[in-house]
Amino acid sequence: MLKVKNIKKTYGNLVAVDQLSFEVKDGEIFGLLGENGAGKTTTFRMIMGLLEADSGEILLNHKKIDYSITDQIGFVTEERSLLTKMTVKEQILYYGALKGMTDAKILKELKYWLKKFEIEEYENKKIKELSKGNQQKIQFISAVINHPKLLILDEPFTGLDPINVRLLKDAVYELKREGCSIIFSSHQMEHIEEFCEKLIILVKGKVILEGYLKDIKKSYGIKKVIIKGKNIDITKLKKIEGVESIKEKNEEIIIEISNEKLVEQIFNSIKKYEILKFEALEPSLNEIFIEKVGNSHE
Fold first, then answer.
1. What are phi and psi of 210, to 5 degrees?
2. How far is 216 from 182, CA to CA, in rounded Å?
3. pTM
4. C-alpha 46, offset from chain centre
């Protein structure tokens, strides 16, 4: 388990991270979100022991993070940090040795992951000869070769096609099942919604929203109704007080509402028509993020 308690980091007069606290349990995927410059990278560096917090504490399995336990942390970022003149095998042997593994154990794990990612034939190819997507797979393997206790994923799917995204997602879920604590950061909110039960949104180093995703979405209530049917007259719908907008897209009527109590009224207004679809939706995480972060700048 990772425990971050009241950490603060300043650079001169700039407060990069301000009294940040959260926990990531074993086998939990936690979302750390924010705009560029919100303090995420600084937080990651403090967790990995690359920066010292001005105050507060960071514990991994009840121990302060220092060089004696940093080998238990894996880190995957969108920027490639591979030695491109090495072969895949040489690269992973190098990283595994840094983590205190034997060559035999490293090669066993490497063969497992290459097979899982469907790139067994690349074992003896140089990194620079691989596509960006396959380089990202090797970067992932280098981060998890020793089955870390904590894995930090910072935009891990950038530039990947849907098939490779699915392969990496399956790998993340496998590590979750093993009990790995995972911090996930991305600007692609659909990935956060799929992975994360809990999350925090940062703005200028401060927490502006935190909690379980299901509870956050529930607190916002129903904000949208989607209808599909035959010959629906939307004139009456436009006159309902609290209906903020109505638009038609792909044969569907999309209604933005101010209050979830309007759902029944909308349904009663159209129930005489042949309805093929009627769906009331909570706001997406993307919509919540835009609202919260946008309001923080006003």
1. -155, 155
2. 20
3. 0.87
4. 19
